[in-house]
């Protein structure tokens, strides 16, 4: 049964593997299921019978349809229809919950005001609507993305220093080595179809297949540094394979959501234990090895916070799990969209190629400077691609802990709130009448303060993506590498893979080598 037809997030055990895996990528990055995990402030008030009203007593427009799955699979169509029928602020159902949806920057600004709460009781909490139950709690409830309030601040304080801009830039030369190998090997990828027998002939490949595993090594290397040789990487990859099965169960196995399930000798439980114990041992041993070799890696420094009693060992291991295993799909999908956009607009591609021609890709500083520039064409094209392809149509909701007046309506505390990302990113009042067109130059015409609450990419509130300094570099690096060696064309119409949780493109790219020499 497809998740599109299931009546509850956990009601289908038989989600196709691809769906399960991608739901895994809910990026636990964005994740949120924290509220169910032993949290006392469970005061979700927006039940089906609760109406939100304005000062004249008028009800906020409401769509009485359960959107828990359609908001991901058909989020664009759903959002377009609801904005047209209900206006810029509305509620829709998420199972038994009535959830508030925002599309206007000024409303989003109010929503996020004091979201972290100086007083913890006023901080946003994560929504119960997407709680995944006991199985996931056993391996991810201690990760940063699941926390809120003071616990979240404590972990972020310990982790943030290792993901600052300088760290990301320092990681580029090491990443570049893997991107070189990726480009050389792409033609031989099992999913690639050669359009001739000569290495000079083009080949075609689905964009997501091309980029699928690329970010994993990049992020792993950023964390484990020089210590991560082939032997360690092989071990990490084996853990990744177990993690895929674990996530599939966490999201698709209804029984696994129940507390009693942990006591049964199922394969899912064995996998969970194997992953938890295996990853704990991996981290412990690789940190020890790094220290022995004198390598000052991110993992070593993060482990220092465990030794100093700032975070627990579970918080350390689970936050690394979230960063490494759960973020693969989010970043690879962003890479796929970026290449598809470049492949779709040949004139932009040629201008980009002319720009990258002046970057010496064997000079680490030149590469880092180029990838981190916020004024070059690469940056403009990357921003435009990110604007038009949010990774979720609706972000993962948070629950407000104090009553707010948003868009003229009294929003009670306990209301679960989410953002219609595409409608924010294409709001004509901010982005102009051509807001849905691909026009990178618009980013030269508008200042970042003008779109501060109108560009959903790494989060719009004070709680933002931990990888936001790394992700753009990883995505741009793919484009740099491709443009130096190949001409790319988007050869099929771009559709969405609606069986995926993230907004995933379904389209193929044709790669035509520019010259032979890179293959040698
Ligand atoms: C293009 C790629 C990526 C995009 C678009 C993206 C986007 C996001 C978004 C929208 C959030 C939610 C922010 C919120 O709560 O409002 C998030 C959270 C998070 N992301 Fe990313 N992300 C990407 C890549 C990465 C990478 C590479 C890492 C690894 C370093 C990462 C680590 C995280 C973590 C740990 C969180 C949870 C942060 C917290 O709750 O404190 N992300 N990401």
From TrEMBL:
Annotated pathway: Secondary metabolite biosynthesis
Residue stretches in coiled coil: none
Record keyword Membrane present: no
Gene Ontology biological process terms from the UniProt entry: secondary metabolite biosynthetic process
UniProt cofactor(s): heme
InterPro entries registered for this protein in UniProt: Cyt_P450 (IPR001128), Cyt_P450_E_grp-I (IPR002401), Cyt_P450_sf (IPR036396), Cytochrome_P450_monoxygenase (IPR050121)
Sorted UniProt keywords: Heme, Iron, Metal-binding, Oxidoreductase
Gene Ontology terms, MF aspect: heme binding; iron ion binding; monooxygenase activity; oxidoreductase activity, acting on paired donors, with incorporation or reduction of molecular oxygen
Pfam families the record matches: p450
Entry binding sites for heme: 465
Keyword Heme applies: yes
Protein name: Monooxygenase
Native species: Serpula lacrymans var. lacrymans (strain S7.3) (Dry rot fungus)
């Amino acid at each position: 049964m497809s998740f599109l037809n299931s009546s509850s997030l956990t009601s289908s055990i038989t989600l196709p593997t691809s769906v399960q895996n991608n739901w895994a990528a809910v990026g636990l990055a964005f994740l949120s299921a924290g509220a169910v995990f032993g949290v006392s402030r469970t005061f979700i008030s927006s039940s089906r019978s609760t109406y939100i009203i304005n000062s004249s007593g008028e009800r906020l427009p409401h769509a009485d349809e359960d959107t828990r799955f359609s908001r991901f699979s058909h989020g664009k169509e759903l959002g377009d229809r609801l904005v047209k029928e209900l206006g810029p602020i509305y509620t829709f159902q998420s199972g038994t919950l009535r959830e508030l949806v925002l599309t206007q920057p000024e409303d989003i600004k109010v929503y996020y005001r004091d979201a972290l709460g100086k007083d913890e009781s006023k901080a946003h909490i994560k929504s119960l609507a997407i709680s995944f139950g006991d199985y996931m709690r056993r391996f991810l409830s201690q990760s940063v993305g699941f926390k809120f309030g003071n616990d979240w601040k404590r972990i972020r304080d310990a982790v943030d220093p290792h993901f600052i801009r300088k760290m990301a830039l320092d990681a580029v030369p090491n990443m570049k080595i893997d991107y070189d190998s990726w480009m050389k090997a792409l033609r031989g990828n099992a999913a690639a179809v050669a359009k001739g027998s000569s290495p000079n002939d083009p080949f075609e490949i689905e964009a997501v297949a091309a980029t699928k595993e690329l970010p994993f090594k990049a992020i792993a290397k950023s964390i484990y540094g020089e210590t991560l040789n082939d032997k360690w990487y092989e071990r990490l990859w084996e853990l990744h394979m177990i993690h895929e099965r674990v996530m599939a169960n966490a999201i698709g196995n209804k029984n696994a959501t129940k507390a009693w399930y942990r006591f049964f000798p199922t394969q899912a439980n064995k996998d969970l234990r194997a992953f938890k114990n295996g990853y704990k041992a991996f981290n412990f041993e690789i940190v020890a090895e790094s220290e022995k070799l004198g390598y000052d890696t991110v993992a070593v420094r993060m482990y220092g916070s465990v030794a100093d009693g700032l975070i627990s060992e579970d918080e350390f291991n689970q936050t690394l799990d979230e960063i490494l295993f759960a973020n693969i799909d989010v970043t690879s999908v962003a890479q796929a969209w970026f290449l598809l956009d470049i492949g779709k607009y040949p004139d932009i591609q040629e201008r980009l190629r002319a720009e990258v021609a002046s970057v010496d890709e064997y000079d680490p500083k030149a590469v880092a400077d180029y990838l981190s520039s916020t004024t070059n064409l690469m940056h403009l094209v990357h921003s435009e691609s990110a604007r038009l392809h949010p990774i979720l149509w609706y972000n993962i909701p948070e629950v407000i802990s104090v009553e707010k007046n948003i868009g003229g309506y009294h929003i009670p505390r306990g209301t679960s709130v989410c953002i219609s990302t595409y409608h924010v990113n294409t709001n004509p009042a901010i982005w102009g009448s051509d807001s849905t067109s691909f026009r990178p130059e618009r980013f030269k015409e508008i200042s970042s303060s003008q779109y501060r609450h109108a560009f959903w990419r790494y989060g719009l509130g004070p709680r933002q993506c931990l990888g936001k300094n790394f992700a753009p570099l990883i995505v741009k690096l793919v484009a740099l590498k491709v443009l130096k060696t190949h001409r790319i064309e988007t050869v099929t119409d771009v559709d969405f893979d609606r069986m995926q949780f993230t907004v995933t493109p379904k389209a193929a790219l044709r790669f035509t080598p520019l010259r032979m020499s890179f293959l040698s």
